[in-house]
Amino acid sequence: MELAHCLIEAHxxxxxxxxxxxxxxxxxxxxxxxxxxxxxxxxxxLELVSKLQNTRFIEDPTGFTPIDDFAGKVDIGYAKKHxxxxxxxxxxxxxxxxxxxxxxxxxxxxxxxxxxxxxxxxATENQVKSLLDMAYRMRNQESKPESLDVEDLGNELQETDxxxxxxxxxxxxxxxxxxxxxxxxxxxxDIHYQPTQEQMVIRMRIDGVLQDVRQVPRYQMDxxxxxxxxxxxxxxxxxxxTQDGRATRWYSDKKIDIRISIVPTSYGERAVMRLLIKxxxxxxxxxxxLMNENRxxxxxxxxxxxxxxxxxxxxxxxxxxxxxxxxxxxxxTLRKGDNIMTIEDxxxxxxxxxxxxxxxxxxxxxxxTGLRALVRQDPxxxxxGEIRDQxxxxxxxQAALTGHLVFSTMHTNDAPGxxxxxxxxxxxxxxxxSSVVVMMAQRLLxxxxxxxxxxxxxxxAELEKLNIDRSIVTHGFQRxxxxxxxxxxxxxxxxxxxxxLLMNDIIREQIVEKINTSAIKRDALKRGEMRSLRMxxxxxxxxxxxxxxxxxxxxxxxxx
Length: 560
Ligand SMILES: [Zn+2]
Fold this sequence. Notes:
- The protein is of the alpha/beta class.
- Helix content is 39%, strand content 24%.
- It contains 22 helices and 20 strands.
- Helix 9 crosses helix 11 (218-231).
- Zinc ion (ZN) is lined by residues 449, 451-452, 480, 482-483, 485-486, 490.
C-alpha cells in the first residue's frame, strides 16, 4: 500500500491506474510489475523504497564482500530467486536486498548471523546477482567429508532433479549442480569439461564466446565425468568410446533439457553439455532487431505469403531457431485459423498452439519421414528444422508447390548461397526458382553493455576496415568499458543482423540460367533489393548497439 501511495505522490493520480487493480496494490508484485513494464527506472524505484523503509540504497556496491562461505550456507539459486546476499560493506554487516518487499533474506540473515546486528540496504537485481556469482566463485571447500564413491554420488545426483535443492549434497554433486545453475543464470548455451595435464577446466559459452569459469583438481576428474555419465544414462565403465546422452533438470520453474557428449582425449574424457531452456522467454518478431527494409520484408512474409519456401541460413549458433520460433509464434497470432506444424531436432522452444514433432533417429523419425507425416496432417504452415539431404529438400519443394508455406534452415554463409546448396542436393533449378520465395541469412552479435557504454571517435583505420566514410558517423561509435554487470566483458546479451532477399522475376531467371550465386547477390545489391549482413552490422554500429570488432568478426566472408 505504501509504495503505491508514494508513487502516486511522485507521478500523479493516474500513474498506477493501468496496473494497480490487477495487482491489488501488493507491494512486491507491484514493484516487479513496475519494472517489467518499464514504467520506472529500477534505481529510482529503489531510492523511493529506501526512503519508505528507512533503509539505505547502495548505488555502487563495489567493495561489498560476501560473508565467509555464504555459498556454503545458502543455495545460490535460492538467494538469486529471492534477491539477497549477506556480507560486509564499509565494515558493517549488511543484508543486501534486490527485492525490497520479500522477507526470505531477513529470515535467512537472522538464522545465519545469529545475535549479530546487521544493517539492511538495497541494490539493483543485477548487482546482487553478480555479487552472488562472486560468492559462488570464491566458495570454500565444505566441511562434509568428501566421497568419490561413484555409486553413492550417482544416487545422490539422481535424488533430485531440481537445482534449487542441493544444500545437503556431497561437495562434488553440489559443485556439479552449481555449475549448471551458474550456466543457466548467465545464459550459457554450453558447458565444457575439458581435461588438461594439471586439472579439469570448466568453460562455458556465454553470448557465443567460451570462457573459463572454474577449475577442478585432477583427482576429482574421473568422478565428475562419471556423474555426467550417470545423469545422461550412459555407460560408466566405457572410457574409450564416444558416448551421447540426454537429461532433464529443473531450475525453479525452468525446464532444462541437456544434451551430453563425451569423447576420450589424451588427457582423459572430455564432456560437453548443451543446455536448452524450455521456458526461456521467446522473442516476438518485434524484438529480433530487424530494422527498416528488413522489417518491411518480414512484415510482408508474415502478412501476405501463403505458399513457398522461406529459407534461413547461417552457421550453428547463429540464432536461426530463435528467429524461426519467433516467426511461427507471430504467425500463430496473426493467422488464427491456420494449422501450424513443425519437425525439429531438438525442439528448442515449446510453442503454444503449434504441433511440434521431434526427430528420433532410433524410431525412424527423420526430417524427411517427419515432413511426409506432417503433410498428411493438413497443415497450412510447416517448419522443418533443417534441409540437409536430397529427400528432405525435394519434399519441402513439393509441399511448397502444393500450396504450403514452408520454413526451414540451411548451413550456408549468405542468403543466395542457399540456391547453390539446393542445386548441390539435386533439386532442379526450375523447381528452386518456382518454390523458394525468401532467402535470409543471419548472425548473432554481442550487444554493448548498457551499464558501461561510452562514446568514442573511431580512427581512420577503423573506418577503413568497415569501408565507410566519416561523414556518416554523426554521433561517434560506442563501446563497453567493462563493469561488474558484464563481468568486465563490455558486452551483455546479443542481437541479430540480417540479410533478406525476396524472390523476383529477375532472380528466378538467373537461377534457371544457373548464374552463380555471388553474381546473383552482387546484382541484387546493385539493384538495391537487399542489404548485406555487413551493411546491417554497420547500421547497428552507428546506432551504438554493437562494435566494429563484433561486426568484422561475424561477417568475415561478407565482401560487400
Ligand atoms: Zn558493463
